[in-house]
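Let us practice reading a record.
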Amino acid sequence: MEFKDYYKVLGVARDSGADEVKKAFRKAARKYHPDINSSAEAEAKFKDVNEAYEVLKDPERRAAYDQLGQEPPRSQGPYQPPPDWDGGFSFSQGGPQQGEAFSDFFETLFRRGAGPTGGRGAGFGADSHGRIEITVEEAFKGAKRTLSLRSPVLGPDGNMTLEERSIAVNVPSGVTEGQHIRLAGQGAPGSGAAGDLFLEVSFAPHPIYRPDGKDLYLDLPIAPWEAALGGHVTMPTPEGKVELRIHKNARAGQKLRLKGKGLPGHPSGDIYATLKIVNPKADTAEARAFFEKMAQEMPFDPRANLGG
């Protein structure tokens, strides 16, 4: 993906005010408009100018774009935005350019969080979008979180400042990754009612569980004798530990299902435990002697199915 220097496209400094940006846009748009300029590159230049103005005229987008800094050296390969570069921002969606085709750079930065906005009438504030990261335990039990957002505010001198605001968020029990939490009236202000804020849910990496929808996956370590002889082992779940029966001659990679023990819902998800046989270390004389005895007395060839 190619980095776009929107300030360079419009020919303005990074600290230019809103009026200066608008003036530069109008000049460039007249220069490259297809009805005026019939050169081969005019159409592409005109699209670049419109895209640059779409970002720099919007306080939220411009403030977030400024966090990216300058274009990185080309020796680093194709440009990729840094992780969580837009943390705390909520980008407004909609508007007359909603269906316009912009570059992959623009789409990746500003439209990847688009959600169920729906149309709004004149005077109503636009819906906004952000992300919230929660734990698997919070998704299971529900939680209350306070989210801080940075809202760009235009001052009387045309310069932007970032204003912090805090929003209380109720995380419902059973929410899944990728789902949106709607906060009515917390979006962009308007002359009528304010828009809504849609928060896309993401899960923080978990040391045990791998969520997939409402299902949870985990690796369950067992000893070689537990796999051979069977028995009961204790396994964690989000609502507490449970006893799980291991059948004799269990195999590594075998999946066991705990129905209804995943994230709650209608129906609730399941937990899938993948058996992982873990060998003890032969780091003492006694342990080594035990393994040597097994090697001598057990007629076992783990490579018998390879033939030869």
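A brief commentary: The first helix runs from residue 6 to 10.
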